[in-house]
Design goal:
Strand content: 15-25%
Shape: globular
Radius of gyration: 21 Å
Low-confidence stretches: 330-335
Distance between the termini: 30 Å
Number of helices: 12
Number of domains: 2
CATH topology of the largest domain: Rossmann fold
CATH class of the largest domain: Alpha Beta
Structural class: alpha/beta
Length: about 325
C-alpha cells in the first residue's frame, strides 16, 4: 500500500466532512465524485442560488451534499458570528454579509462553526484569497503564532527519510522566517509528520553550512532556533544547522556531526526561507519523480488547505485525505 492510500484508509475510519467551496470548477466536481467513490470522507459542495454544477450528474452519491448556501438558514447566523468575531477590527454587519457571499469565507465559517471538519480550496483562487478567510475566522492554534505550509514528499525507491517519505517546510507560505518563526515551523512540522505518518519525526534545520563550517548573520536564525528547540524539547530529535546531505545521508551525517540525534536520518527538512523551500520541493518532485502533496497548512485551529491553481483531480483527492487526518485528534506527542 502506498503512502496516500494508507492516509485514505486511516481517514475512512473517521468519515470526516470536507467542504470544497469552488464547486463550479470541473476538477472539484470530479474530485468530489472520486472521494465519494473511494469512501474516505463526505463532501459538501456550495451552490450559488441553485445554479447547476458542471457534470452534476456524477454527484449522485449519498456522501455528497450540495448546499445552496446563500439561501440556507445558517446564513444569517453566520453573518452575526462573523460580525462578532471581527467587529473590533471595524467589521460591520453589512460587510460581514458581503464577505459571506464569497464561498471561501462561507466555507471558513463552516469550519469555524464545526459544521464540517475541514476545507480544501485554491484550485481557482490565489493563496492569499484562500488563506485570508481562514486566518480571520478559524485563526491560529493555541501556542502557535505562525501559520506555515509544508509539502509531504513521497520519493519512489528511496532509502532516505522514512522509506522515501519527507516533510518539507516552509515551502509555501512564510517568505523570510525569523528565529521565532523557524521555531514555530519546526515544531508544527514535527507534529504534522507524526500525525500523518505515525512515525517519529527527525528534524533537520537546513543551511548551506553544517555545524559552523560557515558563519554569517543569515545563519544565526537557523542555529539559534535549533538550539532553542533542543533545550525546550529534549525528546525531539533535531539538529542544525545542517547541509542537506548531512541531514539525510547516514555516512555523511556521521562524518560531519558525530553524535547528532538527527544528522543522517532526517525526515523533516526545515528550510531557511521560502526561496530554498519552494525550489527544493519542485526539484525533488521533477528530478526524482516524487509525489508532492501540498501546500498543507499547519498552525490553524482547524484544517484549511490551499491547492495549487495548477492542481489535478488526484491532487485535490490527496489533499482532502490529508485534511481529514489533520482533523483527527491524536495522542499528545512527547515534545
Amino acid at each position: 500500500m502506498n503512502f496516500i492510500e494508507s492516509v485514505k484508509k486511516r481517514a475512512a475510519a473517521k468519515q470526516c466532512t470536507i467542504v470544497l467551496p469552488e464547486s463550479y470548477d470541473e476538477r472539484i466536481v470530479e474530485a468530489a465524485a472520486k472521494i465519494a467513490e473511494e469512501g474516505f470522507a463526505k463532501v459538501l459542495l456550495l451552490s450559488d442560488n441553485g445554479r447547476r454544477l458542471p457534470n452534476q450528474e456524477k454527484l449522485s452519491s449519498s456522501s455528497i451534499e450540495i448546499l445552496d448556501y446563500k439561501n440556507h438558514t445558517d446564513f444569517s447566523a453566520f453573518v452575526q458570528e462573523l460580525y462578532k468575531l471581527r467587529k473590533n477590527k471595524g467589521m460591520t454587519r453589512e460587510n460581514a454579509e458581503k464577505l459571506l457571499l464569497d464561498p471561501l469565507y462561507y466555507g471558513a465559517m463552516l469550519v469555524k462553526m464545526e459544521k464540517v471538519d475541514g476545507m480544501v480550496a485554491g484550485a481557482c483562487h490565489s493563496t492569499g484569497d484562500t488563506l485570508r478567510p481562514a486566518l480571520q475566522i478559524v485563526k491560529t492554534a493555541k501556542g502557535i503564532k505562525t501559520v506555515s505550509a509544508y509539502f509531504l514528499m513521497v520519493v519512489p525507491d528511496c532509502e532516505y527519510g522514512s522509506k522515501g517519505v519527507f516533510l518539507f517546510a516552509d515551502s509555501g507560505l512564510v517568505e523570510f522566517p525569523t528565529e521565532d518563526q523557524l521555531v514555530d515551523i519546526a515544531l508544527a512540522s514535527a507534529k504534522s509528520f507524526e500525525q500523518l505518518t505515525e512515525e517519529e519525526p527527525v528534524v533537520a534545520m537546513l543551511s548551506y553550512s553544517t555545524k559552523g563550517s560557515a558563519s554569517n548573520e543569515r545563519l544565526k536564525p537557523v542555529t539559534t532556533a535549533a538550539d532553542r528547540l533542543k533545550k525546550l524539547f529534549p525528546n525531539l530529535k533535531i539538529d542544525g544547522e545542517l547541509q542537506a546531505d548531512a541531514a539525510i545521508d547516514a555516512d555523511v551525517g556521521k562524518m560531519k556531526c558525530k553524535g547528532s540525534k538527527a544528522a543522517g536520518n532526517a525526515n523533516v527538512l526545515i528550510f531557511p526561507d521560502l526561496n530554498s523551500g519552494n525550489i527544493g520541493y519542485k526539484l525533488v518532485q521533477r528530478l526524482a519523480g516524487a509525489e508532492a502533496y501540498g501546500p498543507i497548512t499547519q498552525g490553524l485551529k482547524q484544517p484549511v488547505n490551499d491547492l495549487s491553481r495548477g492542481c489535478c483531480v488526484e491532487d485535490i483527492v490527496g489533499v482532502s485525505a490529508i485534511t481529514c487526518l489533520q482533523a483527527l485528534k491524536t495522542r499528545t506527542p512527547l515534545y
